[in-house]
Amino acid sequence: EVQVVESGGGLVQPGRPLRLSCTTSGFTIGDYVMNWYRQAPGKGLEWVGFIRNKAHGATTEYAASVKGRVSILRDESKSIAYLQMNSLKIEDTGVYYCARSLTTSSWYVGYWGQGTLVTVSS
Amino acid sequence: DIVMTQSPDSLAVSLGERATINCKSSQSVLYTSNNNNYLAWYQQKPGQPPKLLIYWASTRESGVPDRFSGSGSGTDFTLTISSLQAEDVAVYYCQQYYNAPITFGQGTRLEIK
To answer: Which residues 6+ apart lie within 8 Å of A119 measured at CB?
Structure first.
């Protein structure tokens, strides 16, 4: 069974860093596109970025709103994906979802975690 | 960036009636080399992550009831629920994955009339 579980959220001050983890099971993490999405309180869905599967070079893409401040990494030995966020802003507040592509290289998502709440506030 | 615009923003439909949600993209999401529309629909219920309903504009994800259907091509798409059930109350999002950045519509809130 495919499982995706986020952790690492919490209250953080503006300007500080935070690393979210996405622990996976039931599949080989390097074979799939791993995504991060977020949702501000009461707002819609926003794509944050993804890391492609190994077959496509494990390259990354990011939304303009976070580019230069975030990195998506993957530890295949631990089956964990990470979202490293630096220089956090108040507008980064929201629920962060880790999500796996439905098929190995698709950009649409078939499996979502329950999300982890990040609150950026002084 | 491709801008996705849904209509209406909210919708109230009686149980058993048809619900229709529209999605328009600012540029075509049809990839002519494979004739696929890079468009997905998601359902999100309160307090839950989104759930994939439809991809390639009209392919129903496994386990999704057949009352859900997707149609359209190019820039104009529709999600139809043929006979609304109580458990369909949710916010629905269209998403384009034609290119990065991946973008969503603003969401359509579906309620029971």
So the answer is: A9, A10, A11, A12, A93
With bands split at pLDDT 50, 70 and 90, how would you rate the model's confidence at A58? very high
Q: A105: pLDDT confidence band, cut at 50, 70 and 90? A: confident
Give residue B51's pLDDT. Answer: 98
Count of CA atoms in the C-beta half-sphere (13 A) of B36: 11
User: Is the CB of B10 inside 8 Å of chain A's CB atoms?
Assistant: no
B103 touches chain A (CB under 8 A): yes
Note if the bond before A41 is cis, omega within 30 degrees.
no
CB-CB under 8 Å, B101 with A115: no
Return the pLDDT at B53. Answer: 98
**Residue to test with chain B: of A108, A111, A117, most B Cβ within 10 A:** A108
Nearest to B94 by CA among B34, B46, B26, B31: B26
Which of B21, B29, B102 to probe by mutation at the A interface, max A CB count within 10 Å?
B102
CB pairs under 8 A between A and B: 53
- Tell me what the mean pLDDT of segment A3-9 comes to: 98
Question: B91: which chain A residues are within 8 Å (Cβ-Cβ)?
Answer: 44
Residues of chain B with pLDDT under 70: none
